[in-house]
Structures are given as structure tokens and as C-alpha cells.
């Protein structure tokens, strides 16, 4: 399928708007024969007569009117492109992916001000698990990830965002966790692509704990509903624990120590940190 060149569309629009080959030539700063040749090439390439030749006049055809409507929009858009960055402010589309804990901490604290101060930046923020975020970043589906760290992928780099401890959450009647309690209990964790699930499984291996079963349950509210009636155990990051406590929930928790770093990092593709990403990071790091 033939795709017209932008230069052909500009010549065609100049003919329609000028009314004659001579007027179009003056507008495009070229000789009339060049305009005539470009028009003939365009009509031949698309297989349509765009004008009817009547002596020295060009009368636009119905097909020509339809073509002009589409071509004018394309030419206008192309002419507007240089003005996108005529102002000193940053303009662009920024795609950010983040863990759920970021939506409870730095994002609600700083994103509103960033949006107000950068009206020409289209900010899109998605929530995904750690491993999905790393894949999306590597495949250039997002520009920046707020995920667990430190970074191990050699194609990525990052910087510390905030601390995030993990807690074992238990029903209120459990005063102390023991191997016997573990063996008789299910533990509710998010799916296998969740970094915190991997941390929880590592913690249980280090402690020699073997739960009755590990069940996938991707809702903290649902998990707490089970704990409220005295069944199961769960792993939650401290920001989630803090949110529930802010809303008056009493939680019976035990810090899961000895599992290595569970901190959150800002991560981007190496050599791809532009001025918009840097501005976003500056806002996220404000106290």
C-alpha cells in the first residue's frame, strides 16, 4: 500500500488553498512545473483524480475534497511539531510503574504537586508486581519503576527510594509464632511474581517453618477478613500495615527479620534518564 510523503501532502494542500498552480508555486517557493509534476505523481500513486483540469483552472473533485480533509490535518500536525518545545517548560509523556506500597507512600504525597507544576507532562502511573515492572522497564513499556532493590540487572540502574520492612500478620489469639502453629496454618501471599512473596518464603525456609499450605490471595482486605475470624497467617509490608492501623484496624504483627534488603528503589534504563525523569525523581525525594 502506497503511503504519501509529507512533501506531497503539503504541495497538494497549497494547490487547494491557493486555487491555482501558480499560487501554490509562490507559496511553496518553487517553479509551477514542479507543482504540476508533484500533483501528477500523487494522483498516479493513489489512483485517484484529485482535480479536474478545465483550461487554466483546477476544479477539485469529490475524492479531492475527502483527500484534502485528511491531508490538511496531517500537514497541520506536522507544522505544529516544532512548537512543542518552543517554551522552556518540559513537555512529554512519562510512564511510571510502581509497587502497591508506592501508592501508599511517596506517590500520593508528591504526584499532585508534580502534575500542577508540570502541566505539559502527561503522567501515566501503573501498578504491577516487581518482576512485571522489571520486564516492562527492559522492554521500554515504562520509563521508570518504583520497585524492590537494589538493582541487579546490568541494563538498569537506580537509586534508593524508601525503607520497607515486612511483617508476619497473625490472628489476635496467637501470642507467639511456633513451628507447630505454622504447620497447622495456611499462609496467604500474593502471586509468585511478587517480590514480597519470595521474601516471605525465604524467611520461612530460614526459620524452618513449614505452613500447612501457601495460598495465593491478592487482596489485603480479604486476607484480613480471614485473619479476623482466626484463620491463616499473612505477610504484609509496613506501609500496608500502617495504612490499616490509620483506619483503626488492630493488627497482631511480627517483624520478619534476617531476610536481606526489602527496600524500594527508583529504577530506570541505563543512559535513559532524561530531564523529565529527573524532575519526577526530584519531587519524589522531597521531604
TrEMBL record:
Entries under InterPro entries matching the protein: LysR_HTH_N, LysR_subst-bd, WH-like_DNA-bd_sf, WH_DNA-bd_sf
Entry keyword set: DNA-binding, Transcription, Transcription regulation
Pfam families for the chain: HTH_1 (PF00126), LysR_substrate (PF03466)
GO molecular function, one term: transcription cis-regulatory region binding
UniProt cross-references to PROSITE patterns, sorted A to Z: HTH_LYSR
Domain HTH lysR-type: 4-61
Family: Belongs to the LysR transcriptional regulatory family.
PANTHER family: HTH-TYPE TRANSCRIPTIONAL REGULATOR, HTH-TYPE TRANSCRIPTIONAL REGULATOR GLTR
Protein name per its UniProtKB record: HTH lysR-type domain-containing protein
